[in-house]
Each structure stands twice: as structure tokens, then as C-alpha cells.
Specification:
By secondary structure, the chain is an all-alpha fold. It folds into three domains: 19-104; 114-211, DNA polymerase, domain 1; 229-358, Orthogonal Bundle (hpI Integrase, Chain A). The protein has 17 helices and three strands. The chain has helices spanning 22-31, 36-55, 65-72, 80-104, 114-129, 134-155, 165-175, 181-199, 229-237, 244-259, 263-268, 297-310, 333-346, 358-370, 375-382, 387-390, 398-404; strands spanning 274-275, 280-284, 290-294. It has a three-stranded antiparallel sheet. β1 (274-275) and β2 (280-284) form a beta hairpin. α1 packs antiparallel against α2. The longest helix is centred in the N-terminal third of the chain and has 25 residues, at 80-104. The radius of gyration is 26 Å and the shape is globular. The N and C termini lie far apart (84 Å). 27% of the residues are buried.
Length: 415
């Protein structure tokens, strides 16, 4: 609930205006490594929000997600991209103000909004009760955050009593329009897990997880999209290794091509996972499984220049860092996909299918099959937990299929 100052009061301004904090927020952005051009884009949004709060007579201690939702939706015909940008800027501002208030021991701002509290409980449930891998948590949480923010926009707050099958239908219609089936599948999976989380302790009277529809996925017996050895060489050759970004991207591409790592495994790689003396590296795979794989010579040669010359000192132990603000490790698997798509575009290599980073993984498996490796060996290198997953690569071994094909029957031939 947004509280305002009584207009009949002697107070002409709400206590604790946002305006004086804008300058320190912009300074914080500069310290965090944001470029001047980026700060110039964010500055007018923050200042406009401060003016809007003053006109609406909203005090600083009432700043939560609700005023932000009202501000970004104040113009009904505003483009979705602009709404998303303003929301991101103001969420960054709110996070900064809360951190500063906590550092000073100030009570100017509420420590957390209802959305923050609910998300924190949800994340703890995913991690500690259900034991989900960190990559899964990073996939689910943004969907649920957007869902809760939509409820704030629609009803002015997050109320469990308003959650019903109609709510689910509206969310799916709004968020899956012009989206891939994979996006829809992930959205319904996240919603189902969230409603199950709310039902178990009694926050929801009805288990709405059963009301979330299923997005059908079909497994086609087709050859998976992959990069040939020549394509991989072209991609690496087109990467500019004279720059900090190029050396980081080259190291990522080598890990994808030579070890067949998943995008999430690259994001999770930490400095302590690289064992230079023993020549191995630790992989944090699916299902919280930790596996040791050899640190190949060419992989080490690609990693060493980046670690020696380009990786900045940071509190984060992640190997691969962002080159733009905010400083720290890569945001998630999608960041690796972006790096790969950019590299493919520079090399003029046409990408087919979804999952850019997985093209290297499929390429490694395809090369192994065509050089005589068994499916069991491919599954071991790619760390598959099911033989069914590895079986898709049987379709790429055309020469091997010829050896088991019988002769075409002809008249008078052998029976």
C-alpha cells in the first residue's frame, strides 16, 4: 500500500525525498563500471521518477515495487521495451538505496518489499528443500519475479487470494505471445513450482500447480544441429584475440569445442576448479554433480592469457567476468549463448536450430562418432546420465549404418 502525506497537514513535502539520492546513485553507477553513455541513459529515468514521487507525495520510506510499477505504467501506450528499461533502472536504484540504508543502519527504506520476501523464501525452497541446481534457480526466479510484478501492476499488490486459474491464463497469454515453445515450457515449469511452493505451507488454499497447462514437446528422430570441425576453426579464427573481450571469448569457445561443456557449466567455473598442477578441472554439472576432466593443453593455452592479462581482481571467484557493468561473473547461461552467436556472426557461420552454445557440444559428439567412438564413449565425455540422451547421435553415423544394412533383394538372388 502506498501511503501519502495528508494534504491538510502542515507538512508541505513528504518526509525523505528521493531527489538528494540521485547524485550518489549515479556516482555508484560510475564506480560499478557503467560507461558514461549508459549513465546518461539512466539519469533521466531516475530524475523523472524522483519528480513523479514528489508530485504523488510519496515518501522515501514508502518506496517499494508498487510505486515503481505505477510509474512505468503511467502512460498506457508506452512501448514494452521502454517499460522494461525503466523498470530495470528503478530496480537498480531501489537495490542501491536499500543497500546504503542497511550499511548506515538507517530505517529510511523498508528492508524488503513483499515481492522480495516472497522471492527469497522461494529461492531458499528451491535450493535447500528441493535441492535444485543453481542454474535451475537462475532460470526459474526471473519468471516468478515478472509474474509477481505483473500482479502488482494489475491489482496494486501481491495478494494470494487473487491467484486463480484466470490469473494463470492471463499470465500465459501475456508472456507467451510471439515466444518460442521452449520459453513457454520454462514459464509453465516455473509457475508450477511456485504454486506448489505456496500451497505446501498453506499460503494458497488450492494447489494451483495442477491448473498450469503443459507445453507439449516432441522428440524428433533427426540429426541434431552441430558445427563441423572446419566451422569451429573459422569461428576461432574470426575472434579478435588482441582485445580483452576477444581473449575471454576465445577461452570460452575452446571450452565449448574441446570439452563439450554446457553454457551453465562455463558460467559456474571458478578459479579453484582449475587444477594446473594435476592437469585437470572440476565441472559443476547438472544435479549438483562434480566431475573431474582433463585440462587439455590447448584449453590451458587459451585460458592462461585471459587469466594472466585480462581478468580483473574481484570478490567473485568466477573465472569468466562481464566486460561491461556491473562488474562480476557472467549473468547466466544466456550470456554464453550471446557470446557464441556474436562469434558465429563474425565468422559468417550460419546457425541452425536453437541453443547456440550446444552447437559446439553436438559438434564434438559428431566428430567422435565419425572417428569411430562408441556411443558409450560419447556419453562419458559429454557426461550424460542417460543412454537415451546419447542415442540421438546414432543418426549422424551414416557410414556405420551402411555396414549393418542388408543387400536389396533381387529376383534370383540369395534368400
Amino acid at each position: 500500500m502506498i501511503t501519502t502525506v495528508d494534504p491538510t497537514s502542515d507538512e508541505h513535502e513528504p518526509v525523505g525525498l528521493l531527489d538528494p539520492h540521485i547524485a550518489s546513485f549515479l556516482t555508484h553507477l560510475q564506480t560499478a563500471g557503467y560507461a558514461e553513455r549508459t549513465r546518461r541513459k539512466k539519469r533521466p529515468v531516475a530524475k523523472a521518477f524522483a519528480r513523479w514521487m514528489r508530485r504523488q507525495r510519496i515518501a522515501l520510506h514508502d518506496l517499494t515495487d508498487a510505486p515503481i510499477a505505477a510509474f512505468v505504467r503511467r502512460a498506457p501506450r508506452k512501448r514494452n521495451a521502454r517499460v522494461k528499461f525503466e523498470r530495470a533502472v528503478l530496480s537498480l536504484l531501489l537495490t542501491y538505496l536499500r543497500r546504503e540504508a542497511g550499511r548506515r543502519g538507517s530505517s529510511t527504506l523498508p528492508e524488503a518489499s513483499p515481492i522480495d520476501d516472497l522471492l527469497l523464501q522461494y529461492v531458499n525452497d528451491l535450493r535447500h528443500t528441493r535441492g535444485l541446481a543453481e542454474n535451475s534457480v537462475r532460470v526459474y526466479v526471473p519468471f516468478i519475479r515478472d509474474f509477481l510484478r505483473d500482479q502488482v501492476v494489475r491489482s496494486g499488490g501481491v495478494s494470494m487470494e487473487t491467484f486463480d486459474a484466470t490469473t494463470i491464463r492471463n499470465v500465459l497469454l501475456d508472456h507467451t505471445r510471439d515466444r518460442s515453445s521452449e520459453y513457454g515450457r520454462l514459464l509453465v515449469t516455473a509457475l508450477r513450482s511456485c504454486f506448489r511452493f505456496l500451497f505446501v505451507p498453506g499460503d494458497l488454499a488450492t494447489d494451483l500447480s495442477t491448473s498450469v497447462p503443459t507445453v507439449r514437446r516432441y522428440r524428433h528422430a533427426t540429426v541434431p544441429s552441430f558445427l563441423t570441425s572446419a566451422d569451429m576453426d573459422r569461428v576461432r579464427a574470426a575472434t579478435d584475440r588482441s582485445t580483452r573481450t576477444g581473449r575471454r571469448d576465445d577461452a570460452i569457445l575452446v571450452l565449448l569445442a574441446r570439452l563439450g561443456l554446457r553454457a551453465g557449466e562455463i558460467v559456474a567455473l571458478e578459479l579453484d576448479d582449475i587444477r594446473w598442477r594435476s592437469g585437470e578441472r572440476v565441472i559443476h554439472g547438472k544435479g549438483r554433480v562434480m566431475e573431474h576432466v582433463p585440462l587439455l593443453a590447448d584449453v590451458g593455452e587459451a585460458l592462461a592469457p585471459y587469466l594472466r592479462e585480462d581478468r580483473r581482481a574481484s570478490a567473485s571467484r568466477r573465472v569468466f567476468q562481464r566486460v561491461v557493468a556491473p562488474q562480476g561473473g557472467l549473468a547466466g547461461p544466456a550470456a554464453v549463448g550471446h557470446i557464441v552467436r556474436r562469434a558465429l556472426a563474425h565468422a559468417h557461420v550460419q546457425r541452425t536450430g536453437r541453443g547456440a552454445a550446444h552447437l559446439f557440444r553436438h559438434g564434438l559428439a559428431t566428430q567422435m562418432i565419425r572417428h569411430g567412438a562408441s556411443l558409450a564413449e560419447v556419453g562419458q565425455v559429454l557426461r550424460h546420465r542417460s543412454q537415451t540422451t546419447t542415442a540421438i547421435y546414432a543418426h549422424v553415423s551414416f557410414e556405420a549404418l551402411r555396414t549393418v544394412a542388408g543387400p536389396w533383394p533381387v529376383a534370383g538372388g540369395d534368400q
